[in-house]
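User: Structure please.
Assistant: Input sequence and predicted structure:
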Amino acid sequence: MGGCDGNRNWASNWQPEYIQGGAMDYPFQLPEAKAINDFLMSHPNIAGVQSYHNNGGMILRGPGAEWQGEYPRADVNVYDELGRQGERMLPYYRYLVIWSGLYTVHGGFIDWTNDGLGILSFSNELWNGGQYFNSPELQTQQRDPNSPISGQRSQYYFDDYLEFGDQYVEWKEFDHPQFGKVEMGGWKKTQGRVPPRFMNEELCHRNMAFSLYQTDEMPQMKSGETKVEAIGGGVYRVRVDFTNSKLTPTILAKAAENNVVRPDLLTVDGKGIEVLSAGWVQNKFRPGATDLIDQKQLDRILLRTGHPGRSTRTIEYLVRGTGDLTVTYDSLKGGKAVAKVAVK
């Protein structure tokens, strides 16, 4: 890449060249970075990112620099569950925080997608050289200084016997136009950074499976049980359950702090029906007061912190009037859930 680094040209914690090499003059100066960001900005429904890098066998999350501080606890809990599951699916990979487990990164891609776009994001460092030693017997031999697979000797051994010399080029003379006679040879630049070809299928399959696992845990809003009760004077109590059965909340806590994701919307539509009050039911199986929502426009409630993962919440409306009522939960990253209620 020379003077630029495609993973240091993003707008979260971007720093100039004298602090972060490869950062260039300003965020999104690289056309590739700008094109990717333009796509993400135009698709705010994107709720998950996995950025494939190489190498080292790591499942990385932000923050990239210590001074940025740890993510909110609610977000860490989600990241931890996904990352630890990833360690089970990807042998020899470790789930780490970038700055503490690897090194400090300024202007990194997944810092931007998490902090600037509210997307739960991992960076997968593909391939770990330890995957050559995929049995207890090989790992024991690896530690034996007299073994042909200990230390750097293992590179030559596996290249000779598993890759048939594909990774090492024998040295030979070359007539260089500027330097005259030189010798060229040695390890190919991809050696150690990408898996041997015969192990590619497993690497691709396992990482694909981890990506799909994260995809399956992205937020998904659904409506549930509804209940209507007449309480007198033409007023009705209407309750609707909304569920996010997936691990990821509709809005990450960090995204809510940074105000980078549109609030979820809870709307009511019903001809001739007036919303008098609205609140969250603390426990629908026990009597008790609701947590009143203090907003002026109760037929269009803004939920700035979204809906937590793996949870059901019950919204209660007191309404005046009768007829068909539509209650919609609208989330950029969790989709729409609609409940239709007959108030009578």
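DSSP finds eight helices and 15 strands in the chain.
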